[in-house]
From TrEMBL:
This is LUD domain-containing protein. SUPFAM superfamilies: NagB/RpiA/CoA transferase-like. Residues 96-190 form the LUD domain. It comes from the Bacteria. The lineage of its organism: Bacteria, Bacillati, Actinomycetota, Actinomycetes, Propionibacteriales.
Length: 192
């Protein structure tokens, strides 16, 4: 005897068995990339945006995290003096740290969003959501015009975290509360 659920699923499967997914047209890039717009939109989210040359990244990160205990992911392309390496730290360990330093995969000019695919230099998802400060280095050549351009650069099989400013919510009595779902402070170093 089949259940109602099984019967419905069997009907859905039969109805869609021969369906062919429509071919998706190739999309041309959306247009010129405006790195200044990206910086402006990130700042609109109350994140700190600091521009620097590639050779200044290590110095600027050091200045931002001076006196703090920060964790760094495997594959970070620069050293962070005094940092803690992520060797599978549990949430309580991450919560005891002041911040995290990562790179990014894509920055989206139109929305001011940073996307991590958790590859080298970006760490696992918990690493970027638990500490109170996230310092993220974004290269100008990683900035794209809009969301469709970003999606074209991303591997859909990889986990992704899309970050639009510091964590905030207005779920509780419509009052803005920061740090509920992630870092309270986002500091973006935008480099050439």
């Amino acid at each position: 005897m089949t259940s109602a659920r099984e019967e419905i699923l069997a009907r859905v499967h039969a109805a869609t068995a021969e369906a062919v997914a429509p071919e998706r047209p190739a999309l041309a890039p959306s247009g010129p990339v405006d790195v200044d717009l990206f910086a402006e939109r990130v700042a609109d989210y109350e994140a700190v945006v600091e521009r620097c040359a590639p050779e200044e990244v290590t110095e600027r990160v050091a200045a931002r995290v001076a006196g703090l205990r920060v964790v760094v992911p495997d594959g970070l392309p620069f050293a962070v003096a005094g940092s803690v390496a992520d060797d599978g730290l549990v949430a309580a360990d991450l919560d005891a740290l002041d911040g995290v330093v990562t790179t990014a995969t894509v920055g989206i000019a139109e929305t001011g969003t940073i996307v991590l695919d958790h590859g080298p230099g970006q760490g696992r998802r918990a690493l970027t959501l638990v500490p109170d400060l996230h310092v993220c280095v974004v290269r100008a050549d990683q900035v794209v015009a809009d969301v469709p351009d970003a999606v074209r650069r991303l591997d859909p099989a990889r986990a992704q975290t899309w970050i639009s400013g510091p964590s905030a919510t207005s779920d509780i009595e419509l009052s803005r509360v920061e740090g509920v779902h992630g870092p309270r402070t986002l500091h973006v170093l935008l480099t050439r």
